[in-house]
Amino acid sequence: MLALIGFLFRHFKGYYLLVAFAITMALVQVVADLLTPIPFKFLSDKIQKGTTPVFLNGPLSLFDRFILNIKPAVNDQHSLLSLILFAAVAVVLCGALSAILSSFQLYVAAFMGQHLSAQLRGQLFEHLQRLSLGWHGQQKKGDLVQRITGDIFSIEKFVTDGLIDLFAGPLTLVGVIVIMFLLNARFTLLAIAIAPVLAAVVFGYTRAIKAATRRAARIVGEVANVATENIGAITIIKAFTREEKEVQRFTHYISQNHAAGMRAGSLQAQFTPLVTILVSIGTAIIIGIGAFIAGNHDFSFLGLTVAKGSLSIGDLTIFLLYLKLLYQPMRDLSKLTIVATRAAAGAERIQEVFDQVPEVQEGAVSYHSPQKLQGEISYENVIFSYVPGYPVLRGINFHIAAGEKVAIVGVSGSGKSTLVNLPPRFYEVQQGIVKLDGVDARMYPLAILRQNVSMVLQDSVLLEGTIRDNVEVGRPGADDAEIVDAAKKAQIHEMILGLPDGYDTLVHEQGKNFSGGQRQRLAIARAILRDSPILILDEPTANLDVEAEAEVMSALNKLVVGRTVLMVSHRLHILSAVDQIIVLRDGQIVERGTFQDLKRWGGAFAHLLVRNL
Questions:
Q1: What is the CA radius of gyration of the chain?
Q2: Is the pLDDT of residue 602 over 90?
Q3: What pLDDT is recorded for position 240?
Q4: In Å, how far from its chain's centre is CA 328?
Q5: Contacts with 169 (C-beta within 8 Å, 6 or more apart), sequence order
Q6: DSSP one-letter string for 347-393
Q7: Res. 334: pLDDT tops 70
Q8: Distance CA 364, CA 371 (A)
Q9: What count of Cα atoms within 13 Å lies in the side-chain half-sphere of residue 178?
Q10: What DSSP letter does each residue of 424-444 carry, written as one string?
Q11: pLDDT band at residue 398 using 50, 70 and 90 as cut-offs
Q12: What sign results for the dihedral spanned by CA atoms 12, 16, 22, 26?
């Protein structure tokens, strides 16, 4: 719980005054609730003893003379009717004040809950954008989505439904015990004798419920991940008739989630009635002992004696009213436990992400060099590994002059895609240096570095929006003429005009309403619009048929003009026009040269070429 409060305190920064205001309102409401039973004490004393407190003379005189227009009896300072009316008005006023403050508290709690959830989602999403591809590659998409949605909702619900009670409950307990001690200290000790037993039950069940709820929260992330993975791979699942297997796998996680939820639910089902029973036992004992004392008898228990005559029936009634206020926060705690535990589990899972430091750090704070690079690239003794001790690239050394076209080839797993992902710093090298224009890439601010690199990947993904929005990703703010010009160079303009809405055609999720070739040409249009000096092509035609490959290659031929190109390809027959080919094997360069030279030498490239035919 302390960790949750600390988490909330950090993220409520800027709203501390509002939180203090809410706590103050809770304090005033507690005072109003504590004052509500007091008028019954005055009535009891008036009826049994014929006395009224001196400090009530002013209000009661007002009721006597101006409201009721009656004169008190000779031996009685104020009439019983005045005191009854005063007590009724006082109870109504305290109740109205409590209701108004409760309304304000609910509004403030809702405001803080909505603000916090919006802020957390924004911060968490932004932080996820800054974490490296290496970290993202180790995570489960569904679990991350669950943290952004479900876990933050659990925190929001706690702030909205439980945060005020968390402060008001202890204040009520303290206030009730203080007032009860002032009324009758010895009887109060008897009245709260059941409290330690109740506290032990609450503590024990709270720990068990917390463990079950945290397990359920983790499994919900697994359920979300399986669902996300399944929906994303539905074509493969249908193609290999894995529907039943996937249903079984999903059902397995659903069963685990159900079991964890039932464990928490069964504990809660035991906890709430047990608290109620203990409260009822405590109340029954107090009624019995109190009535015995009020009936003019002494009562002793474990050396504690309450003398006869020290407690009246009126006093007993007041004690019972306060006893209800004493036990109510303990009852509420049984409900608050689930909400607080879910929020605490969610806060832990969210903090786990916030604690991740981006592996790729920002470059120089003050940067005054040119915004646009020439495009020269150098790898100097570069060593890189995803898992420590298992290098993917080993001692890579080569230089690419500005405007040169270089192809990276090799069998699957040789490190090709890893190599081309290093210039834009998607990953951080462990040893060695990658230089752009003779400067360590780590010295460039990431925004400037990546503005100078365009990429066309094996399976280019389109984003939600229109065709125009997707092309404009290359250079936000580009006008329509520039977007159309880029589409023409990518040989996709005519296809776009053939659509009913043209450039305003909506793109479905990941561009599934376009063919692979169309998606690639839109990605090329995006890269053309970006107009960066360095172009990375990672298997841009791997998933295309012959006709679509020809269309994409025609568009690529226009894109590569005047740029430094790093190209990964398994289709070796398209590499005859590049300036240099680098052959990788097990993360090392084993050959380097032109297409004709490598073919003539009969080495690793020549063997790959024969296999590629």
A1: 37
A2: no
A3: 64
A4: 32
A5: 329, 332, 333, 336
A6: HHHHHHHHTPPPSS----SS--S-SS----EEEEEEEEEEETTEEEE
A7: no
A8: 13
A9: 9
A10: TTSS--SEEEEEETTEEGGGS
A11: very high
A12: positive
Percent of the chain at pLDDT > 90 equals 16
C-alpha atoms less than 13 angstroms from C-alpha of 357 in its C-beta half-sphere: 4
Phi/psi at 306 (5° precision): -110, 120
DSSP string, 468-535: HHHHHTTSTT--HHHHHHHHHHTT-HHHHHTSTTGGGPEE-GGGTTS-HHHHHHHHHHHHHHHT-SEE
Question: H or E element: which one contains 582?
Answer: strand 580-585
List the structure tokens of 317. 């009634």
The structure tokens listed for 48 are: 């049994």
Decide if 584 contacts 419 (C-beta within 8 A). yes
Which residue has 């709203």 as its token pair? 15
Which structure tokens are listed for 231? Answer: 């929906």
Per-residue DSSP letter, 151: I
> Whole-number mean pLDDT of the chain?
83
pLDDT at 436 over 70: yes
What region, left, alpha or beta, does residue 601 occupy, with left being phi > 0 and alpha being psi -120 to 50 degrees? alpha
